[in-house]
Give the backbone structure.
Amino acid sequence: MNLSTVYFENVRKLINAIEQDENGKIEIAARKIAEATAAGGIVHLFGSGHSVLAALEVYIRAGAFSNSKPVMREMDIDRFERLPGIGKAIMRSFDGRKGEVLIIFSNSGKNPLPIEVAKTAKEKEVFTIAITSFEHAERSRGQGEVLADIVDLAIDSHVPYGDASVAVPDAKIKMGPLSTVANVTLLHAIYCMAAEILLSMDEQVPVRISRNIPEGLEYNRKFAEKYGERLPELRY
């Protein structure tokens, strides 16, 4: 079996495990997002390093909720994620409000940065959700706090310890990381279920459509009007 085939198989196993084991938590997260959205609120997302990719996945994107707002967009914050105090500094400008939702992506869940972000959001009565590797968290307990124990809801990404999943023969290394695949799969599953819940509540689903189709700009204008004060980028 070649290594790309191994990786495809690992991805399939990962997604199957998420679907089988995390549906209950996906529904809880979706309901919180639906309730916040129905109340006119924002869904905040945070990740550092490569985890910022998931935080940006639904930001002003066709097929995603227009009220999705990353806490920050810079990848290079990972240089500071192990330093205490950085999360508190970042969250000084956080505009989360009571009843809103913050999704935090952190594969290891052991660094001070995402933990401080979660704690600060909870102080503002924002509902916090972590998408993180339970296997990595389990190995990290006893070395300090882990994100999964801090947030209101922790969802297992089912990513293996260390993220990489494909052993390279004779090289003593692994490649083929899975965390980004897991993060965005869980995120879109949560949003899809949130849309279903909103419809059952007779509420508008604030899903954008592509600006590159004729009706796109006109259709999305109502979301810019509704959320533009807190997400001014929607106006451009």
